[in-house]
């Protein structure tokens, strides 16, 4: 009940925020707004639901995800996220968190692939289990430094493919990721763009995803963020949790190495 | 002894070759993945992104560093693509141009097929005094007409720049609006008016 009160206040603040934003419409205003909500990120609700889902026994195999190995051993969550994506011997593949979750839900819990990926991006009345699980798992790495490895040849391959994709210009508008994200201090309209080749900027950006997005009222994962970027890049739709997206995430995660993870964060 | 030396020599060549060919072709691997990992939706198709034109291909590889000769080859080839207005009339309606400059729709996977495309000029350029929500990837175009004047030379250059920006700057970040079929001739005329008409807010 106390929690509901707390979030009612948060939601009130969110409703008031556009008025605050309209005045200055600058990053300073957004920073103030974040401060306003600092001890009340609605993402905590997703984290709590994610924890329940992580521990809940699911049919047909009637087991929880607590046996899922995210890279640090079965059930180990602390620090797992800051080392993802990584190479997993059991599948001989590099996986990001979302791919690994799908793998655990199918191989351990016995769900079909379709069941495991259903509602991967949630909407009103149709909450996403994956967004909740990702919120919970990532929150267990809060305060830890990003530390992905590219030592294994498959990890190196993912990194290099991601890098190639970052610079790949195509489509009607000739855009690549690099068009908007390879220079310091640029803006699209009033939205600041991060330079993902600049270590500090990459750290700040990467280490604050997943995030509760005020404009969408949902916790959004990295896969969701990239899908939305690619839509604006005039690319076709990336399949959910595909190899190419994991490769791009690997490239970004490596660029953000050493950044202190501070998600799930709060974003516009 | 001779045999040993020959064997050694051959094995050296072979290892040399192996190290040379073992370097994986990541660009090729990525291209193969694109076909598998993307789905066409609305006006954004897989076909369009896997079939880069020569400029897109070149600019992906040499994104930051390229020789002057390479850049000149691109600008020369792109200059040839430009189609000037059939009726030699360059200036349309600035009010329509403003709408095009504001509109960010077109060719996104979320857009309808066959919808009206925008130019989204404000995403990257300052243009008028009143619109304060502008980006800064491109230069400010405020007072563009005032600064450059109203003559045939300015018209032709501005038209060409909008039609195919890479006719002047190789690997420019700016879309090739006419060449890529994003804006039609009438729309480019309207954007021209926004920039050059003395009555346009750009020049106030």
Describe the protein in words:
The complex is a heterodimer of chains A (268) and B (204). With 268 residues, chain A is mainly alpha-helical. Chain A has two domains: 1-40; 41-267, Orthogonal Bundle (Cytochrome Bc1 Complex, Chain D, domain 2), CATH 1.10.760.10. Chain A has eleven helices and eight strands. Chain A has helices spanning 2-24, 27-37, 43-55, 97-107, 113-117, 129-139, 153-166, 177-181, 199-206, 222-232, 243-255; strands spanning 86-88, 93-95, 186-188, 191-193, 211-213, 218-220, 237-238, 265-267. A three-stranded mixed beta sheet of chain A has the order 6-5-8. In chain A, strands 1-2 form a two-stranded antiparallel sheet. In chain A, strands 3-4 form a two-stranded antiparallel ribbon. In chain A, helix 1 (2-24) runs antiparallel to helix 2 (27-37). In chain B, 47% of the residues lie in helices and 1% in strands. The longest helix of chain B is centred in the N-terminal third of the chain and has 21 residues, at 2-22. Mean pLDDT of chain B is 91; it is low at 12-20. The chains are: A mainly alpha (268), B mainly alpha (204). Strand 7 of chain A pairs antiparallel with strand 1 (38-39) of chain B.
